[in-house]
Amino acid sequence: MTHANPDDVRRVIDGDDPSPAPTDDACLGLFSLLVRARLVGERLDALAEAGTIGFAPTAIGDEAILIGAASAFAPGDWSFVTHRDAVLSLARGVSASRVFEQALGRGSSKGRATPGSVCDREARVVAAGAPTAAHAVHAVGAAYAGKGDGVVVLATLTEAMLEAGEAHNALNFAGVMRAPIVFVVRATGDVTPPASERGVAYGLPALRVDATDALAVRASVTEARAHAASGAGAVLVEAVGRGSTGGGADDPVARLAAYLGRREALASRLDPARAAERRAIDDAVAAATRQGPAALTTNFDDVFAALPWHLAEQRDDAARSTPTRK
Amino acid sequence: MPQINMVQAINDALRLAMQRDPRVLVMGEDVGKVGGVFRVTAGLHEEFGEARVIDTPLSEGGIIGTAIGMALYGLVPVPEIQFSDFIFPAYDQIVSELAKMRWRSGGEYSAKMVIRTPVGGGIRGGLYHSQSPEAQFIHVAGLKVVCPSNPYDAKGLLLASIADPDPVLFFEPKRVYRAAKGEVPEGPYTVELGKAAIAREGAHVTVVAWGAMLYEALEAAHQASARGVEAEVIDLRTLWPLDIDTVVASVKKTGRVVVVHEAPRTCGLGGEIVSLITERAFTHLEAPPARVTGFDTPFPYTTELDYLPLAHRILPAIVDAARY
């Protein structure tokens, strides 16, 4: 795999990329996931605006990157993401209701981490504690551990996180350990040197791709994953540009819809798919809301595997002094 | 039974753990081919290979961060931080990530590992090779903290730590790495976490100590005995969660307590121990609880023996408590 030319940004939609186009069903599946990611983001924003949740770290406009990248991975692969990237988990088998459950602090989330921090063992998704790039170092360790199992790890970063010391640790250890990992970096394209060149400095081949083109992201990340899976080590994929909403040329969902709409077999299937996703989101929010909030005393669980004496005392104190919550 | 020192005992525990469980691996700066600056990992690289005895780049945050990822995946890393003074570049990974992983993921994930690191002064190492930062980790929810004082406990506590489901910081008192010798069984055994040991029985004053300072407490107790004061010396072994029952039972018996540690006094573990005793045994106390500790200064290079709470500083505290 050769390094990216900084002037070269891969485009499939309205580009001249020679890679074979995905099947209609694969395209429709990707479209549905992009729509779902957009709707989840918008609903989280609405919940935050209404004061129902504390805040909503969403990635509206970045759906092509998150869904395009995540859908390029195999079932046994792991993903390490920041809390802004919760919708990525939708493409790793996590349900929308689980994302809302987490954001609302209901059900299995136990009301612990802040909105967006979806951790799901079955889907092998690990959300970062804070957006400091610390999670990218974990991703490298997991990739090292999974080497013998054919597992490849996905880690999302942003251009800003690349400034953090932990990003240096992640890229450096990935290079030294030849870890099977793909770093997907969201980049404005305005920073010098670009993320892709930083990857090169650590011995990582880097690709550049249009951040609003889900098909291009998926194609590049698929190649990157294959490279990592071959034993050749880590790859950095720089997703260049800022996505937006509103249906314009920078809206990754609208862009994919317009492209797929030109396929005869898909034109009539996009609107029903969109409507189905909309209905499913309403159901997902309702299902998550039906889950009860966590009781205060459950905060003392999971600090350690078993409850030590000092936490048992504090839990009992809390139970005595706290009025019952609805 | 062979007489070995603490370095050999810890090396023995690591080898046994790696032989018994293929998930266990060792990683750190120069732990592989070199065998560690204190030789604690000597021979492991030859026996288990570079995939399980990993020479890492010189970056503590990278060491602990990658170890967290390995642990999430299901391995059991035993990373070494070359000196506990160098642990702070990894502080964010330990307190923000490792300690909170099970809790913040709602129990979906855990990241068990044992972070081994030499601790304490008395080796003429100066301010960056001598500190005792245990309290800074005990203050963080989700970490267990262990500090053995002798080879038998070091091996048994390390094997127990590796078997434990929670992250453990394993502080190794480097001042007695080779000076502390004792009989250690050859096969595997564990010393239960959370259990203190009564290193010396006595009826008049309780002394709580751990690590290298245990020997200073024992020496002071020996000298106090000549003055008619019999001190009971508790070797805490697990610093957190500490063995509250043993400590409180002893203080209820003696009514007097002296806590000894190398770390600076303010917000040190001694303050917490005194608070716990005061809450639980207030009416049994016959004298104000006392602390004999390092000072609230950086750890000095040339005057380290004045800084450390050695026997000559512990003795008057024991006698004063007895005569209060």
* Alpha-carbon distance between the two ends of chain A: 57 Å
Q: Could you give the count of β-strands of chain A? A: 6
Structural class of chain B: alpha/beta
By CATH, the topology of the largest domain in chain B is Rossmann fold
Rg measurement of chain A, Å: 20 Å
Helix share of residues of chain A? 40-55%
- CATH domain class of the largest domain in chain A: Alpha Beta
Q: Which blocks of ≥5 consecutive residues of chain A have pLDDT under 50?
A: none
Taking all Cα atoms into account, the compactness measure Rg of chain B is 19 Å
User: Which sequence of SSEs, written as H and E, runs from N to C of chain B?
Assistant: EHEHEHEHHEHEHEEEEHEEHEHEHH
Order of strands in the sheet with the most strands of chain B?
9-11-10-13-14
The backbone outline of chain A, from C-alpha atoms, is globular
Low-confidence stretches of chain B: none
Which structural category fits the helices and strands of chain A?
Answer: alpha/beta
Q: So how many helices of chain A? A: 11
What's the CATH superfamily of the largest domain in chain A, by name? Answer: Thiamin diphosphate (ThDP)-binding fold, Pyr/PP domains
State the strand order across the main sheet of chain A: 2-1-3-4-6-5
Summarize the main sheet of chain A. 6 strands, parallel
How would a crystallographer describe the biggest sheet of chain B?
5 strands, mixed
> Globular, elongated, flat, extended or rod-shaped: what is the shape of chain B?
globular
- Would you identify the CATH architecture of the largest domain in chain B? 3-Layer(aba) Sandwich
How would you describe this protein?
- Chain A is α/β, with parallel strands linked by helices and 326 residues long.
- Chain A has helices at residues 24-49, 63-70, 96-104, 134-145, 165-177, 195-201, 214-232, 252-261, 264-267, 270-290, 309-321; strands at residues 78-81, 125-127, 153-158, 181-187, 206-210, 235-240.
- Chain A has two domains: 24-294, 3-Layer(aba) Sandwich (Rossmann fold), CATH 3.40.50.970; 299-326, no CATH class.
- Chain A has eleven helices and six strands.
- A six-stranded parallel beta sheet of chain A has the order 2-1-3-4-6-5, sandwiched between helices.
- Chain A is globular, with a radius of gyration of 20 Å.
- By secondary structure, chain B is of the alpha/beta class.
- Helices cover 37% and strands 20% of the residues of chain B.
- In chain B, the strands form four sheets. A five-stranded mixed beta sheet of chain B has the order 9-11-10-13-14, sandwiched between helices. Chain B has a four-stranded mixed beta sheet with strand order 5-7-6-12.
- In chain B, helix 3 packs parallel to helix 4.
- Chain B is globular.
- The mean pLDDT of chain B is 97.
- Chain A binds chain B through residues 78, 80, 108-110, 112-113, 117, 119-121, 126-127, 129-130, 132, 134-135, 137-146, 165-166, 168-170, 172-173, 176-177, 301-306, 308-310, and chain B through 56-57, 59, 61-62, 65-75, 77, 92-93, 96-97, 100, 102-110, 141-142, 144, 164-166, 194, 241, 244.
